[in-house]
Amino acid sequence: MPVNPMNRREFVKKSAVTGAAVTVAGAVAATPAQAQTADHKPEKAPRTWSFSILGTTDLHSHVFDWDYYTDAAYKDSKGNSVGVARVATLIKQQRAAKGEKHVLLVDAGDIIQGTSLAYYYARVDPIVAAKGRRAPVHPMAVAMNHMRYDAAALGNHEFNYGIETLRKFEKQCDFPLLGANALDAKTLRPAFQPYTVKRICVPGAPDIKVGILGLTNPGIALWDKDNVSGKMAFTGLVEQAKKYVPRMRALGCDVVFLTDHSGLDGSSSYGSELPYIENASNLVAQQVPGIDAILVGHTHVEVSSYTVKNEETGKDVVLSEPYCWGMRLTVFDFELELHHGQWKVTSTKAQTLNSNTVEEDPEITKLLKADHDLVVKYVNTPVGTCTADLSAAEACWKDVPVMDFIHQVQMATVASGLSTADAALPLISVAAPFSRTADIPAGHVTIRDVAGLYIYDNTLYGKKLTGAQLKDYLEYAAKYYHQFASGTKVDTATLTNANNFWDYMYDTAAGVEYDIDIAQAEGSRIKNLTYKGVAVADDQVFVVAVNNYRANGGSGYPHIAAADIAYSSTNEIRQLMIDYVTSKGTLDPADFAVTNWKLTQDGTPVFTAS
What we know:
Layout (H helix, E strand, L loop, with lengths): L21 E3 L23 E9 L9 E2 L4 E2 L10 H15 L4 E5 L8 H9 L14 H8 L4 E3 L9 H10 L4 E2 L3 E3 L10 E6 L7 E8 L4 H4 L1 H4 L3 E3 L2 H14 L4 E6 L20 H7 L5 E4 L5 E8 L6 E7 L5 E12 L2 E13 L7 H18 L2 E5 L3 E2 L9 H16 L3 H4 L3 E5 L7 E2 L2 E4 H5 L7 E8 H12 L13 H4 L12 E3 L2 E5 L8 E6 L2 E2 L5 E7 H4 L13 E8 H12 L1 E2 L9 E5 L2 E2 L5
Parallel strand pairs: 1-9, 2-5, 5-6, 6-7, 10-12, 12-13, 13-15, 18-30, 20-28, 25-31
Antiparallel strand pairs: 2-16, 3-4, 8-11, 9-10, 14-15, 16-17, 18-22, 19-21, 20-24, 23-28, 23-29, 25-26, 26-27, 31-32
Helix pairs in contact: 3-9, 7-8, 10-16
Subcellular location: Cell envelope
GO molecular function: 2',3'-cyclic-nucleotide 2'-phosphodiesterase activity; 3'-nucleotidase activity; metal ion binding; nucleotide binding
Keywords: Hydrolase, Metal-binding, Multifunctional enzyme, Nucleotide-binding, Signal
């Protein structure tokens, strides 16, 4: 693909800062109403002051209000809009209302992965330049630099394309990427800047020092093991906050603000695979004294304002998570009073603003429309045809052909790379229904049709499980369903997502036959597990085609993370699917569709065959 032709690639470059360095921002002026001219100093220093921190998170390279998979404006049942172009308008409104220099802007991570635009600038026209070519600037760097972000936390998806791509993005940003618990594996020193300090200038009074500490998700060590193993280590959020918050206070920070790529319910999706909590922002607020507020990310929910009392000081800490994809903007408002020459926070409030209330910022549109148009053209590239419509609408409770397409590609790819000894073992596949709206239409098939089915940049593994371990694996998956007693009508609206087990966490299997009896209690639901008509023996060994996220412990499935590796590849499964259609020319479900699992209630099928 051609190098992006945009003529807006000029930026003031800053050197990458690593280790425990601190960036101190230039003085920030007062609001116009409070500002004093150089020759008219205030008669009396102000005793109170206010400022705001605006927060985004989990933008996932959503620039415009556009869905690349449907080739249309984004649409959901709640009327949300997406994209930083709309958020930019909200930010302009806040700066205009409160004073340009009374507003800081921070992000909580997951910036450079998540849309076809993100993939395009990581793999098709990558920001990491090959020899002899000029690399583009990442559109998210362009947008966020223009919006004048002050800092961003590292998200776990920042590592999906490898450390080299992340470092290149870091160099393209005019603001620091913060990660106090992202350490160099050899030295155990910070591999990224832990924190930054910004100054709010108060005429006639001391500057207000605002310390911003960034923390990322320990799960990176599992989820992106292939990219970070031996290079980086990730410690707990609480542990590192206890180290750096006192340090920031010792530097004279009047306000300590955290940006955490970590949810606030104290849960972990990886079970006991790691000693550190995945969603630990509430624990940080509770256990680490000296924090005023936390911008929360990672879990893709809206929490407008949530208060946690610190167990040591009794002080309330305000947390807020502004949903994802630019649907919301968090506004933290701080009130301070000057006591004996030092500023003290007297009030902290948070709220979220909805980006569907404003139009896209025309300046962002002007900067990035050419990038967007290139990606639209790319995703609409034809790759073949399909003999029937393949919908994922019922994939969460029925064995549908479109899921068998994923299984077919995974098994065929793993089979081609097995050793002679492992090739003699039975081969199966596990995969999750990532999108209920995915649909590969009958007729012409484009890149976006296939990409909409497999929305993550996962790579492929082959791992060995015994029959007993496979049954445990499938039992774990089956907790996705709520229990429905025999004879009870099953409503698909309430059938799934039990135990906060979401669609992307739920694996079905191909290559074996089995029933899931939802009338039974969790742990006793897998029935009639067979391979080629014969009951699976506990000691029978299988090669399981599985994505890297699951293979490395994602979602906490038993046995798989520790299982022996029979195959691994750096090729994205999505691209393997696109290549399959391209090579075949025609996608025909007759080549791969097999109904090998079903839901039952005490042995009676819940749904009739399609």
